[in-house]
Amino acid sequence: MRLVGRRKAAAALAASVCVAAVCAAAATGDLDPAALSAGAFTIARFDAEAFSEPAPVLDYKQTQRFLRGRHHFNQNWVQFPSLGGDWGLGPTFITDRCSGCHVKAGRGRVPGAADEAPVALLVRISVPGEDAHGGPKPHPHYGDQIQNQGLMGQGRDATFLGERVPPEADVFIEWEERTVTLADGETVTLRKPKLRWDKLWFGPLGEDSMISLRLAQPVFGLGLLEAVSEEAILALAEQQKARGFNGRPNYVRDDISQGTALGRFGWKANQPSVKQQIAAAFAGDLGVTSSLYPAMNCPGPQVDCAAQPPGNQPELIDSDWEELEFWTLLLAVPARRNVADPEVQRGEKLFEQAQCAVCHVPQMKTAASFPKFKPLANQTFRAYTDLLLHDMGEGLADHRPEFKAEGRDWRTQPLWGLGLAKTVNGSTDMLHDGRARNATEAILWHGGEAQVSRDAFVQMPKADREALLRFLDSI
User: In whole angstroms, what is the distance from residue 113 CA to residue 117 CA?
Assistant: First the structure.
């Protein structure tokens, strides 16, 4: 059941994807070098599938493997012994497939109405203190994130309960708004999320609980970010200190190596690798076990959750996990657009003058060697990030530490693909909790180390602000 569907999917799509990859490689050869967002991993595709294509460097066999990874990304998971998907969903969860949060390999969407349950906007939770490895300490009743869906299930005596394994909570998002006035008199309405708990199934959270909303991030281009050497990232931190900024690395638990490693992924750089991020998302978001995280996500008081039979042991088998990692590492990045436009070029200069480029570093290079996939080595790319933590001020603070990241710290978000977000998944929601509906709002929420850049934007004449925004739209 698990293998037949994915082999058919790969066979049906392999030829067309290979052709598309070759065409993309040919097309990018004619582009301005400034448009090559990801070096040899750049594609000239700008439609709804712009974030979902393989890098042009893949050969036929590698493309077959890429397609199997894509199948796992889109595959729905179901409860054992249901048909129509892979066994292992739940018992509590947020979504039933990876693509349910990362829409077309892009960012998640904020709920469109007050009574719409969040899917791609999850709720992290912890209590004061640290776990055994220096990370957030899980809540004793709810673990490290709120699961707002639960399964139908069997009781502890294997008889049918006839009722759902309850979700951990029914939670909804409401918005508080305020108006900001720019130097030329233009006004912008900013919003901030507020949680509404309609039901907490396992008791009150407690006054000391630390809660943080997290919007699903794009997953394309991550292979390049993983292939940057630790030394290069630390060198950026030193360069920033010389300019009065304080970018810092996060060092986190690496469960694969059973040690500590540089954090690169997640809103607070709390994951060291794509492979671990995938396993953690399966455990936390889908309730699917793996060889890395073999225990079901059922905190102490959730006895009916713990009584459910597993779909497999583990449910995400290692070969599928590795193929999904390969797919993620080898997703291509769409080229920049309109790089020769004088207004875009003027906006780029304004971006630099406002010191936005100190943290959103325009250009990085991968390490000289990357054994996981050799073509990822020695690639110059333009993600507009430094992979470092920065104090972003009280306005964005969640007051929830993660390893070396404090409550006001956030990893610099990559900007590539920004101008295609609405085309790909119909959303321009930004920042860690989706509060910003566009780039203007995102900039106006910047504080802390980014206050100087935010203030420069506020003081710009409208024509300059529009030029800067056109530059961002070109990335």
Answer: 9
SS3 14: helix
Question: In the chain, which residues have pLDDT < 70?
Answer: 1-28, 153-163
Distance of CA 38 to the CA centre of its chain: 18
463: tokens are: 């024509």
What DSSP line would sit under 178-237, residue for residue?
EEEE-TTS-EEEEEEEEEEEEEETT----TT-EEEEEEPPP-TTHHHHHHS-HHHHHHHH
Range of the domain at 396: 2-474
pLDDT digits (tens, 9 = 90+) for 74-130: 999 999 888 889 999 999 999 999 999 999 999 999 999 999 999 999 999 999 999
pTM (global) more than 0.90: yes
Task: Say how many Å lie between the first and final Cα of the chain, rounded.
Answer: 41
**What tens digit of pLDDT does each residue of 216-252 get?**
999 999 999 999 999 999 999 999 999 999 999 999 9
How far is Cα 272 from Cα 256, in angstroms, rounded to an integer? Answer: 10
CA distance 21 to 377: 20
The tokens for 428 are 């321009």
**Lookup result for tokens 């890395």:** 292
| Residue 465: its H or E element | helix 462-474
At residue 153, the pLDDT reads 60
Token pair for 211: 């809660």
Strands 42-43 and 333-334: parallel
The answer to whether 120 and 108 are in contact (CB under 8 A) is yes
Gap between the Cα atoms of 117 and 417, Å rounded = 27
Which residue in 211, 174, 213, 171 sits closest to 194, CA to CA? 174
pLDDT at 80: 85
Dist. CA 45–CA 51, nearest whole Å: 9
Domain count, the chain: 1
Contacts 24+ apart (CB under 8 A), 25-33: 25/56, 25/57, 28/56, 28/335, 31/335, 32/339, 32/340
Q: Which of 396, 399, 408 is nearest to 443 (CA)?
A: 396
CA distances from 283 to 29, 79, 94 (A): 41, 15, 11
3-state secondary structure at position 444: helix
Element (H, E) at 321: helix 318-329
274-281 helix and 318-329 helix, angle to the nearest 10 degrees: 120
> 300 CB contacts (<8 Å, ≥6 apart)?
140, 141
- By residue count, the chain amounts to 475
Strand partners, 211: 125
Q: What is the overall mean pLDDT for the chain?
A: 92
